[in-house]
Specification:
By secondary structure, the protein is α+β, with helices and mostly antiparallel strands. Helix content is about 30%, strand content about 30%. The protein is built from 17 helices and 30 strands. The chain has a five-stranded mixed beta barrel. A hairpin with a 5-residue loop joins strand 24 (about 580-585) and strand 25 (about 590-595). The longest helix is centred in the C-terminal third of the chain and has 30 residues, at about 530-560. The radius of gyration is 28 Å and the shape is globular. The relative contact order is 0.08.
Amino acid sequence: MLNADALKQLSQLKTDIRSSKEFAEGRVRGSNGKFGFVELEDGREAFLPPNEMERVFPGDRVRVSLTEEKKGKLSAELDTLIESQLDYLVGQYVQRGQGHFIQPSQNGLSRWIFLPPKARGKAQPGEFIACKINRHPFKDGRAQAKVETVIGKPDIPGIEHAYVVAQFKLPEQFGQPAQAQAQEISAQLAEVISERQDLSELGFATIDAESTRDMDDALAVTTRNEGWTLHIAIADPSSVIETGSPLDKEAFERAHSQYLPGETLPMLPRNLCENLFSLVPGELRPALVVHIDINTDGSLGESRYEFAAIRSQHKLSYIQVSQFIEGDESAVPEEQKQSLRNLAAVFEARSAYRANHSQAMEDRPDYEIHLDDKRKIARIEKQERNIAQRMVEEAMLATNISIGGKLAELQQGCFSVHLGFREERMGEVRSLLKELLPEHAEQDLGELPNYLALVKYLESHGDAQMQNLLSVLKRMLRPGQLDNKAGAHLGLGLEAYATATSPIRKYNDLHNHRVLRAAQQDGPAAALGDEQIEALQDSLTRGRQANRALEQWLYAQFMQDKVGQAFSGKITLVNGAGLGVRLDEFGIDGFVRLNGDKKNLPNFDGKHLTLTYNEQSYQLEQTISVKVSSVDVDKRRISLELLPETSANEMAIEK
């Protein structure tokens, strides 16, 4: 037994060893294996071995001690759990012998979590379940969970939708207070409309997809001596849904209408967004009407807005309007023809103007997913964007530019900003530019004129090197974000931008209507604080992730019977392991793994994002031929193989 002096010496030795170590804080990042990493606050990354990764979850904030391994790489040992945000899991109930577990679907969490007997409820092995974490593994590596909800069996129709809704906690049902408020709105709208000027004589019509029911804007275009006036009537839920009311709180929680394959989770109850607020033809509706003068050169002139009432004349489809613009005079009603001709002229002028003064958006095809009675993908239709869609988009863009400018003057609103390149990638950006375009390398690329000048130069030079540079630089851009302060939108090439054309689908648009109303009435509007902006942004991000997760699951199922078939596709990702490819026919992503043969590894240039394999060079946006080699539905992975062009053509003929 150690005496007091020996214990004291041992304690001092531990203190000395501890004081000689380097400690740091960071967040845990999982992997596809049992190991993980800690992303340190100073930008470094430390390897977390499997025995340590067993004690934490991805996303945990931890304090670690660091050891430098070979070639300067860091290894981490856990010291303190500072924070754990993971308290909810969805996955499949699995049983192995006497052990019962949830196999989670969270990225980076590649281990099963134990379900104690009293925590299983009525769940059965094989079912999909949602669980609450009730024991963190930091102490001994033994995490535990409790079943909260049984989502369903894997073979029931629509289980993929139910699973994703549970996984991302997407709200489905409206609470009783919100439903009660919704029932009172019909009478309130009648009173609002009775007090407003009727602007129906301007000749408004909606232009949407044939299936659209939540019609939130209608258009009319009249001529004037110096060009045209674009009139946009926008549905006006702000007239009766007050800030802080039950409907407002639920709309804020949702942030936007969620459009999943085969299903819509609306921001407002369906009777409101598809009926009472929707600009249904022949029905008088309250609206925010924006009038924008557009000059013959495409520049925006004066604009003004008013809260009025309108009656849409017709519900026109994109197909009808496109047919009319392309020469079919019988495609649309007579009273809409001149307005549509004017809209086409506005589109031509605005497109040319923006091509010279801001940025044009990429014109990529849409892919419409059709589900069968089991809610699996029956077919995917590739749809090139037609002239009507581009005309409407240009009109909405002009409206949001106008509204963005007015809100910037008011110094209040919810703005869409895009700040250009990621701060942590600026070193790579400047290195590339010093090599290829030194005259742009020292410019402040966070300033709109400098950023625009760079992009315009690259777009105007069609050689492969400049086009690849443009593709590489786009991968280093930040995502767009919401902000309660006006800022540049570099992605669109604009000084200020704020959306206002979809208030029955997007909460930030609803808020901007309230700001405009308050300004008209010379009163203050309730501002969105930083925390509210962050919450809206988180909801939007979660919605995009949910849509992507569901699509990837359905895509993997859809591609199972296409193993061995050949397709053409564009390269969307280049890394040391291989190529990410988006199939032209379906818009589905797969991966070509090229690093499996250690005797024939690809040569990856991480600076220029090019890869050389078997004397062939590959880069972003390049069209290549591939074959589907395998599909793993459980992991949502579609594996592809490179094909010579001749083989691809032969297989396409066989199909």
